[in-house]
């Protein structure tokens, strides 16, 4: 069956649990390594506390400063977390082409962001906030953020026109959340 339509609701609490459980399943290796690293850290920290007298005596005999082992443990933890973060990012980049061209389209019903692999359509009431970054315009729906880089616009006037037009179509709550971030563009338009 190719043509299927389902209607359902998903509570926010379930979505937060889904985020964690799906992440654990999709990225099981870095997830397990993270917990292994943290477990090892706290186990070794406990050993340092339990055997403090023995370690202290050995340190004095060898001329090692009292803070050496704790510092080494912290460095290993931070280094391990850094390496795991790099691994995690490499796995994510291997699943999706983040360098594909994005097509942005505005129509009477909302805005569309599309690549060759995926498409998002956000109706005007679905836009929860607009922001200005130093290198582009950001449109969000909840915790999904879509950025249109400044390089996509022919000039500053085209960018400002988009910001004013989209801002004018936002619902009252989204306007309130967005106004302080868009104030420079909105003020510039009213000065003309």
Descriptive report:
- By secondary structure, this protein is of the alpha+beta class.
- The chain has 2 domains: 12-95, no CATH class; 103-191, no CATH class.
- The protein contains 6 helices and 6 strands.
- The strands form 2 sheets. A 3-stranded antiparallel beta sheet has the order 1-2-3, with no helix packed on it. Strands 4-5-6 form a 3-stranded antiparallel beta sheet.
- It is elongated, with a radius of gyration of 25 Å.
- The mean pLDDT is 89.
Overall 3D form: elongated
Order of helices and strands: HHHHEEEEEEHH
Quote the beta fraction.
15-25%
Catalogue the unreliable spans.
none
Briefly characterize the structure.
The protein is an alpha+beta fold and 192 residues long.
Topology record:
Blueprint: H1 12-26, H2 28-50, H3 52-62, H4 68-95, E1 103-107, E2 110-114, E3 119-123, E4 129-133, E5 136-141, E6 144-149, H5 156-169, H6 172-191
Antiparallel strand pairs: 1-2, 2-3, 4-5, 5-6
Helix pairs in contact: 2-4, 5-6
